[in-house]
Design goal:
The structure is a single chain. This protein is α/β, with parallel strands linked by helices and 602 residues long. 42% of the residues lie in helices and 8% in strands. It is built from 19 helices and eleven strands. An eight-stranded parallel beta sheet has the order 2-1-6-11-10-7-8-9, sandwiched between helices. Strand 4 (276-277) and strand 5 form a beta hairpin. Helix 1 (2-18) packs antiparallel against helix 7 and helix 14 (426-444) runs parallel beside helix 18 (533-546). It is globular and about 95 Å long. It binds N-{4-[(3-aminopropyl)amino]butyl}acetamide (Q9C) and zinc ion. Zinc ion (ZN) binds at residues 362-364, 454, 456, 495-496. Keywords: Chromatin regulator, Hydrolase, Metal-binding, Nucleus, Repressor, Transcription, Transcription regulation, Zinc. GO terms for molecular function: histone deacetylase activity, hydrolytic mechanism; metal ion binding. Residues 1-112 are annotated as: Disordered.
Length: 602
């Protein structure tokens, strides 16, 4: 399997090199998107039209970088999904004109029906009761195959094995994984993945890795969907939502309802690579990006709802583009819609989930997520990121940013400062979890944990997009620690990371942890090493600031420089002292009671 994957990566690398050359003509590609280029082109501004030559409109052959088995899988899927796209375009009109009051069919009968059931579940059960007592809502329970319609017509998995979706009667309480090929279509029109490291191959590779290692067959595959414009507006402004949530095709319909106003004349920057976008990172494909960015959000929402409701043990969302930099009205750093933030809001609004913890271990600060919950005490945001005194992208995330108003203390920035010499690695991340992340998280006691799981802190990512040397394995161990929270209701969502080996290794480690598969142990060297001086300084500062809001961190202010082994020994000693004290006090009480009996009259 390893060897196969290695070959696949090699092949992919070679093909990436040639991407510029292999742009083929539309006619040769029967599988090109079924949205009608002729109609769409009319909608584009003159400026964009000039950019969209025949060659530029044509994307590199989809799936060309995949292993054969995955190829089959996805191709079958493409067919049905492309049909959906046109259907769903109609829904936008319904949602935006909002005449129906309720959400349009885009949200789907599944969500609408189950949403009510979920809400009832949470209210009745006083939030997240033990999972064994959970009764699946009607839409999730055993249903005859035919009754499920198109959402169940899933492709057969490679090797003749039926995929989980072909067995609608079996719903296992296991790790859910969500992935959808719609997200592959968000690609710069220049087609050069070297210029744009946030490319489709990232999630294709992770999906293949989970298949090839057999991990996927231990999981339940969840079908994604595009988030509705209404859902996106739980975090983003209406203008921002329409700007990035619509394509020329459905905008035409919206236009005819005279509701779009300034959206009709979208403006993007022309990029040096020949494509268009907000900036060179945050590229836009006028034909396909809106579907992709809405799919990324909808996939995470679907997965997280099932985990929060107790239908799945936990989950891993293989989604792109990432979201944590996206602010209310700003797209940046590859991000358009903040999937994790939207999901947290929807869990609260539709499922009555009380407290959500968001842990963000992408190497970059999640400025969008911080902004979305800055004055909200019901969502605790903890980010570990390279900060370097504001000199690392996006520049925000100072330790002093602790939240505002009622949200003071509910924003925790572990802002690594001091560059990469010495490098920040496993020991530093594990120490941060030991002294800051896990104590605060336990004290907060969340109902659900969402993880902005970027893997750009993994070794293999060089400055300026990384520079740290955390191992993939370490992320498995961090995941396992988070699973001690919220009754195990933990959902990871891919954010950044572009080194394919690194993000595949890390995804594999995290999914293994979620499945409670035995993890590769951390090296003894890691357990015996002390965190580096810059990390200790960073953690001292965080503890000094956050101890005003979280009393639990105070006890870690000393001993930050300990290795994990030393800390472990200290904890054992502490525990022994505590029980010895308890014994002493029990002894004292008994003695007192005995003395009292002796002196009391019969
Ligand atoms: N000129 C994520 O990992 N590059 N985003 C900044 C400045 C931004 C990374 C270049 C990298 C964004 C989700
Ligand atoms: Zn990042």
């Amino acid at each position: 399997m390893q060897q196969q994957h290695q070959q696949f990566l090699e092949k992919q690398k070679q093909q990436q090199l040639q991407l510029g050359k292999i742009l083929t003509k539309t006619g040769e590609l029967p599988r090109q998107p079924t949205t009608h280029p002729e109609e769409t082109e009319e909608e584009l501004t003159e400026q964009q039209e000039a950019l969209l030559g025949e060659g530029a409109l044509t994307m590199p052959r989809e799936g060309s970088t995949e292993s054969e088995s995955t190829q089959e899988d996805l191709e079958e899927e493409e067919e049905e999904e492309e049909e959906e796209e046109v259907e769903e375009d109609d829904d936008d009109c319904i949602q935006v004109k909002d005449e129906e009051g309720e959400s349009g069919p885009d949200e789907g009968p599944d969500l609408e029906e189950s949403s009510a059931a979920y809400k009832k579940l949470f209210t009745d059960a006083q939030q997240l009761q033990p999972l064994q007592v959970y009764q699946a809502p009607l839409s999730l329970a055993t249903v005859p195959h035919q009754a499920l319609g198109r959402t169940q017509s899933s492709p057969a998995a490679p090797g003749g094995m039926k995929s989980p979706l072909d067995q609608p009667t079996k719903h296992l309480f296991t790790t859910g994984v969500v992935y959808d090929t719609f997200m592959l279509k968000h690609q710069c029109m220049c087609g050069n993945t070297h210029v744009h490291p946030e490319h489709a191959g990232r999630i294709q590779s992770i999906w293949s890795r989970l298949q090839e290692t057999g991990l996927l067959s231990k999981c339940e595959r969840i079908r994604g969907r595009k988030a509705t414009l209404e859902e996106i507006q739980t975090v983003h402004s209406e203008y921002h939502t329409l700007l990035y949530g619509t394509s020329p095709l459905n905008r035409q319909k919206l236009d005819s309802k005279k509701l779009l106003g300034p959206i009709s004349q979208k403006m993007y920057a022309m990029l040096p690579c020949g494509g268009i976008g907000v900036d060179s990172d945050t590229v836009w494909n006028e034909m396909h990006s809106s579907s992709a960015v809405r799919m990324a959000v909808g996939c995470l929402v679907e997965l997280a709802f099932k985990v929060a409701a107790g239908e799945l043990k936990n989950g891993f969302a293989i989604i792109r583009p990432p979201g944590h930099h996206a602010e209310e009205s700003t797209a940046m750093g590859f991000c358009f819609f903040n999937s994790v933030a939207i999901t947290a809001k929807l869990l609260q609004q539709k499922l009555n989930v009380g407290k959500v913890l968001i842990v963000d271990w992408d190497i970059h600060h999640g400025n969008g997520t911080q902004q979305a919950f800055y004055s909200d005490p019901s969502v605790l945001y903890i980010s570990l990121h390279r900060y370097d005194n504001g000199n690392f992208f996006p520049g925000s995330g100072a330790p002093e940013e602790v939240g505002g108003g009622p949200g003071v203390g509910y924003n925790v920035n572990v802002a690594w400062t001091g560059g990469v010499d010495p490098p920040i690695g496993d020991v530093e991340y594990l120490t941060a979890f030991r002294t800051v992340v896990m104590p605060i998280a336990h004290e907060f006691s969340p109902d659900v944990v969402l993880v902005s799981a970027g893997f750009d802190a993994v070794e293999g990512h060089l400055s300026p997009l990384g520079g740290y040397s955390v191992t993939a394995r370490c992320f498995g161990h961090l995941t396992r620690q988070l699973m001690t929270l919220a009754g195990g209701r933990v959902v990871l969502a891919l954010e950044g990371g572009h080194d394919l080996t690194a993000i595949c290794d890390a995804s594999e480690a995290c999914v293994s942890a979620l499945l409670s598969v035995e993890l590769q142990p951390l090296d003894e060297a890691v357990l015996q090493q002390k965190p580096n001086i810059n990390a200790v300084t960073t953690l001292e500062k965080v503890i000094e600031i956050q101890s005003k809001h979280w009393s639990c961190v105070q006890r870690f202010a000393t001993g930050l420089g300990c290795s994990l082994r030393e800390a472990q020994a200290g904890e054992t000693e502490e525990a022994e002292t505590v029980s010895a004290m308890a014994l002493l006090s029990v002894g004292a009480e008994q003695a007192q009671a005995a003395a009292a009996r002796e002196h009391s009259p019969r």
